[in-house]
């Protein structure tokens, strides 16, 4: 970590820098954890008065932006902004390299889209910034226009820009040159990653009941290769509850080929769930009730239960890496393949056996032993050179602190919603904010930039993409070592950022949802412990059907949004810009520590109830010496520490920049300290014990208690006690770090 800080400091001080000189001697052995995300319902509640940064406001006349109503047409009501950024995700990442250093050297232009704005409560915090926050917002609004977005869309659109392809190289050069034009001192990093592509010669194929051979064009990267034969069983979306339904009907999944609908969870989770039950293969198709993409449109994706290059888990893919051959534990051991709607329909209509549950409501039969299918996958492993492009607007006070705004650049096919819109917003925000800083220098008041803003164009950022956040995760691995219509605005992010998100939104009603594994911001939070947020427009509960297909074009997106893509891009840019500028504008970060207290209490309460039931009804399963009081005590320590921090803030002089820096250090330590130090990133990449994925999370502890209660074959009382102890100490360690002065809390701890 010290070397990471040194590397970034050298860059920010203008010294030459190179990732290839980055030394990885400080590894992740003591900084990792795996977790299953499970948000409690009370996380959606507004927490009044407890968020960090609501003290000592300096702008009591904070004014909201002027807005106009969006003109609604039938198309707007059907798919208003169905995904302008449908996983465009401007991943927001407060990339804080935190350390305990004690010495510190006119109104907005109206848009046709209802404007997202800071609520009146979001007022200036600390140190009386040089520019009024209303003026900052107004200045940003003046920089953004539909005409400028149309021009950028045209410039950055491409029919073929897969990761590592010549088309992607053209695009990263365009972004790089724009960053030069904006005076952002850009740089690139190169990674040599192993990815799985479709067969160069031949094809993947399947044959059902001795019929005609089918050769699907789509594929799932990182599938196991080989040929398997087994009976088909239909398992709905492949969620845990779906497989539980089949088990309740006495289905034995061992050796079966599972047919699944796309959606609800990621491809990787579907395959992992099937593999746990010893299925031999998985076929995934787009059902017409979820996807309006036609009968013969192929799907693309990946099935790695992780992110980044699975052949360099936990460390970056440099060409000089001298590690022995290794691979991620998240790679599946079974065959997986996507098929079209038409192919799936032929299979479903011929299935025999038991009737499907009524709530699955599509097809009558689940399949039996006579429904035999042969599936063959022949994907090819290839090494590709990928590029990430970075530009920076330097801050004035804290050169080792930064906010990162990032977007995916590559895609299968045109990828207009998947990458072009996001990259365009990234570029326009970079231009706008750099202009604000330049213009500010000639004004009596200058735009306050107390910490750095990094703009990042990643290759294959999305877990939902074909390779799984390769570019973003490789960069992270370096840094770790170092209602229908426009109102359906969905935001997923770290609980620390929920109040900031809610305060940044005004007329557009957001739907806060948990970060999912196929969300591009997820690895930043669960893998690296960096507070992050992503957002997208949808039509109510429906997402943009063409995402992840070669039909994701500018024309399609304009069609489903009523030609409102530029206006929606402005809305997204202002939301993204306001969040980023708010974080670099104020001396004190507006983070809400109480949300994690509620989430933790909810999960600890579930564990407590289950342990008591087992001790009462099945005393032979767990020893009487096991007490939940220690876990509850650690949770209480965190809650008291967060309350103490809020009190410290109220008592502090927030005009004191050094004091704010110390307070920010304590705030930003929370996310990082929720990463379990007791597991390897190779085995458990998503180490966040509350929002990650794996056996060392509180959610996994609760699930393990269910196994113990039902005498499940995977139940292991000794393993549970070990995981219980490690989770307890992880939470206690987070509380200790948050408390600040640990010695004054000795009795409480």
From TrEMBL:
Q: Which residues cross the membrane?
A: 77-98
User: Which residue intervals define the domain PA in the entry?
Assistant: 228-294
Look up keyword Heme and say if it applies.
no
Report which superkingdom the organism of origin falls in.
Eukaryota
What does the similarity note say? Belongs to the peptidase M28 family. M28B subfamily.
Record key words, sorted: Cell membrane, Disulfide bond, Endocytosis, Glycoprotein, Lipoprotein, Membrane, Palmitate, Phosphoprotein, Receptor, Signal-anchor, Transmembrane, Transmembrane helix
InterPro entries xrefs? PA_dom_sf, PA_domain, Peptidase_M28B, TFR-like_dimer_dom, TFR-like_dimer_dom_sf, TfR1/2_PA
Instruction: Give the source species.
Output: Scophthalmus maximus
Domain named Transferrin receptor-like dimerisation: which ranges?
633-738
Lipid bilayer topology: Single-pass type II membrane protein
Name assigned to this protein: Transferrin receptor protein 1
In alphabetical order, the GO MF annotations are: transferrin receptor activity
Functional description taken from the UniProt entry: Cellular uptake of iron occurs via receptor-mediated endocytosis of ligand-occupied transferrin receptor into specialized endosomes. Endosomal acidification leads to iron release. The apotransferrin-receptor complex is then recycled to the cell surface with a return to neutral pH and the concomitant loss of affinity of apotransferrin for its receptor. Transferrin receptor is necessary for development of erythrocytes and the nervous system. Acts as a lipid sensor that regulates mitochondrial fusion by regulating activation of the JNK pathway.
Pfam families (UniProt xref): PA, TFR_dimer
Q: Is the Cell membrane keyword given for this protein? A: yes
Task: State the post-translational modifications.
Answer: Stearoylated.
Q: What Gene Ontology terms describe where this protein resides (cellular component)?
A: external side of plasma membrane; melanosome
GO process terms (BP): intracellular iron ion homeostasis; receptor internalization; transferrin transport
Q: Where in the cell is it found?
A: Cell membrane; Melanosome
Q: How does it assemble?
A: Homodimer; disulfide-linked.
């Amino acid at each position: 970590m010290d070397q990471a800080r040194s590397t970034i400091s050298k860059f920010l001080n203008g010294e030459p820098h190179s990732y290839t000189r980055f030394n990885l001697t400080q590894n992740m052995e003591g900084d990792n954890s795996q977790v299953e995300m499970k948000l409690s319902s009370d996380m959606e509640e507004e927490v009044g008065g407890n968020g960090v940064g609501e003290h000592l406001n300096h702008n009591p006349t904070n004014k909201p932006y002027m807005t106009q109503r969006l003109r609604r047409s039938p198309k707007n009501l059907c798919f208003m902004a169905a995904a302008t950024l449908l996983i465009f995700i401007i991943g927001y990442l407060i990339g804080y390299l935190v350390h305990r250093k004690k010495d510190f050297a006119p109104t907005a232009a109206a848009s046709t889209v209802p404007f997202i704005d800071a609520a009146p409560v979001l007022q200036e915090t600390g140190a009386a910034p040089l520019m009024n926050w209303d003026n900052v917002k107004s200045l940003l609004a003046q920089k953004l226009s539909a005409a400028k977005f149309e021009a950028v869309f045209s410039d950055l659109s491409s029919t073929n820009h897969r990761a590592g392809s010549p088309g992607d190289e053209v695009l990263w050069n365009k972004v790089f040159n724009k960053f030069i034009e904006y005076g952002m001192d850009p740089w690139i990093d190169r990674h040599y990653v192993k990815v799985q592509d479709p067969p160069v010669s031949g094809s993947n194929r399947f044959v059902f009941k001795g019929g005609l051979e089918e050769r699907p064009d789509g594929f799932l990267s990182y599938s196991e290769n080989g040929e398997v034969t087994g009976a088909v069983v239909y398992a709905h979306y492949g969620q845990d509850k779906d497989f539980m339904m089949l088990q309740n009907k006495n289905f034995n999944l061992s050796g079966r080929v599972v047919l699944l609908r796309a959606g609800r969870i990621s491809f990787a989770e579907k395959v992992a769930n099937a593999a746990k039950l010893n299925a031999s293969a998985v076929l995934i198709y787009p059902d017409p009730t979820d996807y309006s993409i036609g009968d013969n449109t192929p799907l693309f994706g990946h099935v790695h239960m992780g992110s980044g290059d699975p052949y360099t888990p936990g460390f970056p893919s440099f060409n000089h890496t001298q590690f022995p051959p290794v691979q991620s534990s998240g790679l599946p051991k079974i065959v997986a393949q996507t098929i079209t709607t038409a192919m799936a329909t032929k299979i479903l209509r011929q299935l025999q056996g038991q009737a499907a549950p009524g709530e699955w409501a599509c097809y009558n039969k689940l399949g039996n032993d006579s429904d035999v299918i042969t599936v063959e996958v022949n994907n090819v492993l290839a090494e590709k050179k990928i590029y990430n492009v970075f530009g920076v607007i330097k801050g004035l006070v804290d050169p080792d602190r930064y906010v990162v705004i990032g977007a995916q650049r590559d895609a299968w096919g045109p990828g207009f919603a998947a990458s072009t819109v996001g990259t365009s917003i990234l570029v326009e925000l970079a231009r706008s904010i750099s202009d604000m800083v330049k213009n500010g220098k000639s004004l009596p008041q200058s735009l306050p930039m107390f910490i750095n803003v990094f703009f990042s164009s990643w290759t294959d950022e999305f877990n939902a993409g074909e390779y799984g956040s390769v570019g973003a995760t490789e960069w992270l691995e370096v840094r770790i070592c170092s209602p229908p219509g426009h109102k359906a605005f969905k935001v997923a992010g770290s609980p620390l950022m929920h109040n900031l998100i809610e305060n940044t939104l005004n007329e557009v009603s957001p739907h806060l949802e948990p970060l999912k594994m196929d969300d591009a911001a997820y690895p930043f939070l669960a893998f690296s412990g960096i507070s992050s947020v992503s957002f997208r427009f949808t039509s109510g509960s429906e997402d943009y059907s063409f995402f992840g297909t070669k039909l994701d074009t500018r024309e399609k997106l304009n069609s489903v949004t009523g030609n409102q893509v530029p206006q929606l891009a402005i809305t997204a840019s202002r939301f993204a810009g306001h969040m980023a500028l708010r974080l670099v504008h104020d001396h004190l970060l507006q983070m809400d520590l109480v949300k994690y207290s509620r989430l933790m209490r909810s999960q600890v309460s579930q564990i407590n109830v289950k342990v008591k039931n087992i001790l009462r009804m099945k005393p032979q399963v767990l020893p009487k010496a096991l007490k939940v009081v220690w876990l509850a005590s650690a949770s209480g320590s965190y809650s008291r520490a967060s309350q103490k921090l809020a009190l410290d803030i109220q008592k502090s002089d927030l005009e004191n920049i050094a004091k704010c820096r110390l307070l920010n250090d304590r705030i930003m330590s929370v996310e990082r300290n929720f990463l379990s130090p007791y597991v390897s990133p190779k085995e458990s990449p998503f180490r966040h014990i509350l929002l990650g994925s794996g056996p060392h999370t509180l959610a996994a502890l609760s699930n393990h208690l269910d196994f113990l209660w039902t005498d499940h074959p995977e139940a292991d009382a000794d393993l549970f006690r070990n995981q219980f102890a490690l989770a307890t100490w992880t939470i206690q360690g987070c509380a200790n770090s948050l408390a600040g002065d640990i010695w004054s809390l000795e009795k409480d701890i």
